């Protein structure tokens, strides 16, 4: 990739190697300017090399053949090992004729492209690490003025500037030059200016910042433009469309959807494009069935800018995004169906089991959430609302509540804007669920009431039943159990009327919690038992596990300790089977409390530690810390 620091690294390595005595014959350097409008040819380069070797004037052979023969003869006769640096190569034809005819010497070639057809050792360069980027800009500022205290005063702004530069050395050098020119203006002022733009490259090239130590202009956009112009049409199209993909990493199947190509064709083009170093295959995915690809932030911004500049390319991009969103909706639907699947139902397609559905959702979560945000544009509203609905179960399961709030809000707004009141009600309802889980109970109640009002106005009885139940759960959390009981009874009656056995089981289970909260323990036990039996009859083992845990808590409160311990054990078995580590943490914490209350501190401590481990696996550090603390008190 242009601007990654190939020349700087090659020259620094050469200086160090020569200083260490590895090349007593010194180093020869030629800039082949492979990406300029007029690249240096091998015939031109050999003249420069002969001049460096002392062959000039009347000693210079008249023909190219003679010049190459003389060049190779001089290197063959040169006893001291020499390093030949051929910089900025765009085509093997530029450097192959310049290779020495002996293996005594060494050659270092820099290029934005990989010469895969040649048996050469390749070293790929990545953007700098965050700390290295900060150090580069800091050093550049202090070298110019040792009194420049901006890096020390604005460490957060400096880190953000490095992020906005994509940790690309060329962009960082340009940013440092801009800061030197702006002195004493704050680093944050440049950060604000860059953040306002969608394509950062014009801003970074917005002023005369001079040249680097090698005499090259510090400009970014021309570097990207030359690389882009050299691409064949198919690769150029793929780069433009890949720049529009949601998320930072993109799977090959998603690229196939964006481009409208088959998987094999998309993979072949991606591999060709990777050879130009404009995209990168994500490490660790070499053996994956669906490799993932990364586009540098500045390349992405540049390519997106190319799309935005032309009406025909904009329409091409809109069609690509619509295909990608349709692909995500299809896959998310299949994954959601697998997560909700019960024995006896038709097997969902695409994902063979729950673990594979969760693995796909985990890999694609960032992109899926970003894709739902496309709902802000009416063209994608319908598909984005569908995608949000299919993500709800997963986001609740993984406890990604902030993402869930984002997704539900986008879906609600899109449905409202397009006049789909039923979908708007679903969006409000999912938003209420996410808000309740995030601890924003009053907002959750308001959201469920809005959902309920829309469903009743639309005559959507199924939605009304679901929303009464969700409202009831929020009311209980808000400390209003009597109102929650009334709402649960409304929901249960509607579900029974429409024959929704699964939802009826949920209402029995949640009703029991509200009954228990007001001291109606016997009724609560009966409701939990009804819920458990309904879940088991439906083959919903995970639902049964939740009912077992809740039933155990009620039995514990009623003084039925033996029954409670047995029920906790049943719940834990199911939760471990499903990988529900947050649920397992709750069950183990409850069970540990029983052991502590019955005078068994050793077992209580071990169970609290097991609860802490389960919470850790569920990425719930606060809950894990509480259980660890409880265990420590029993040491």
UniProtKB/TrEMBL annotation:
Looking up Gene3D superfamilies in the UniProt record yields: P-loop containing nucleotide triphosphate hydrolases, Tetratricopeptide repeat domain
So which domain of life are we looking at? Answer: Bacteria
GO MF annotation terms: ADP binding
PANTHER family hit by this protein: HTH-TYPE TRANSCRIPTIONAL REGULATOR RV0890C-RELATED (PTHR47691:SF3), REGULATOR-RELATED (PTHR47691)
Q: What is the name attached to this protein's record?
A: Regulator
Gene source species:
Streptomyces corchorusii (Streptomyces chibaensis)
